[in-house]
Write a structure and sequence with these properties.
With 240 residues, the chain is of the alpha/beta class. It has 2 domains: 110 residues, Rossmann fold; 113 residues, Rossmann fold (3-Layer(aba) Sandwich). It is 48% helix and 12% strand.
Length: 240
């Protein structure tokens, strides 16, 4: 029997739907009954994670703990979180439930080790970068990190907050040329891969048609890990 995935969502809503869609599309199944049961809490009351990490904003951990408890009570066997920055708060909530939380940063680090990566660029929100939790996960396995410069980081933050979180999805409105230049600059700094470490970024890159084998999508990695943990198989077309 397949385990039930609990998705802690609302951070943001588009990322929540994106994660759920990926799990569905990548699961090897020929009928409704062969798909993985999922319980989703699209909890938009969870305070902004970047605001909390950088500026002393309201701590999202209590609301995240409520969401985790709700998912456990509803029958989830384990939890995945549809937000990179929210993983910073996992230590504050994991002891409040008796089911595991699958860590996106750790799963990403494991994959990069398998690929033999030594130097990775990280595209993320200010909160994720300045908290250092993604960097620490990579450093623990011997991977160096590269980041955008100050102006480029403002572009990344704008792409997340002023475009995707606000529902701007017209490719003509998105800063495709600027992001293409940013990607090229990070590659020139020796980055072997570029980690899209904000769940809005893979959505934005897909809309803009930016694709490369060097892009690493933690949301995709988390979805695959969740499928395996649930006891299902990944479709052959996605198993790489």
């Amino acid at each position: 029997m397949l385990k039930t995935i609990g998705i802690m969502g609302g951070m943001g809503p588009a990322s929540t739907v994106d994660l759920m869609n990926r799990i569905i599309s990548m699961t090897e199944a020929d009928s409704d009954q062969e798909h993985i049961p999922m319980i989703v809490d699209n909890n938009t009351r969870i305070p902004d994670r970047t605001e909390a990490i950088l500026f002393g904003g309201k701590n999202p951990a209590p609301e995240m703990a409520l969401s985790a408890a709700k998912l456990e009570a509803a029958g989830a066997d384990f939890i995945v979180i549809a937000c990179n920055a929210a993983h910073y708060f996992i230590p504050q909530i994991k002891d409040k439930i008796s089911i595991p939380i699958l860590d996106m940063t750790e799963e990403t680090a494991k994959l990069l080790i398998i690929k033999g990566v030594k130097r990775a660029a990280v595209l993320a929100t200010d909160g994720t970068i300045q908290s250092g939790f993604f960097e620490h996960a990579l450093e623990r396995v011997g991977i160096q990190t590269v980041y955008p410069n100050e102006e480029q980081q403002k572009l990344v933050m704008s792409l997340v907050y002023n475009y995707i979180k606000k529902g701007v999805t017209d490719v003509n409105d998105l800063p495709k040329e600027e992001m293409t230049n940013l990607v090229g600059d990070l590659s020139n700094q020796g980055a072997e891969v570029l980690i899209l470490a904000s769940t809005e970024l893979p959505i934005a890159f897909s809309i803009m048609g930016l694709r490369s084998d060097a892009f690493v999508d933690p949301t995709n990695i988390l979805a695959k890990s969740a499928i395996r943990m649930a006891g299902a198989k990944i479709r052959k077309s996605h198993d790489n």
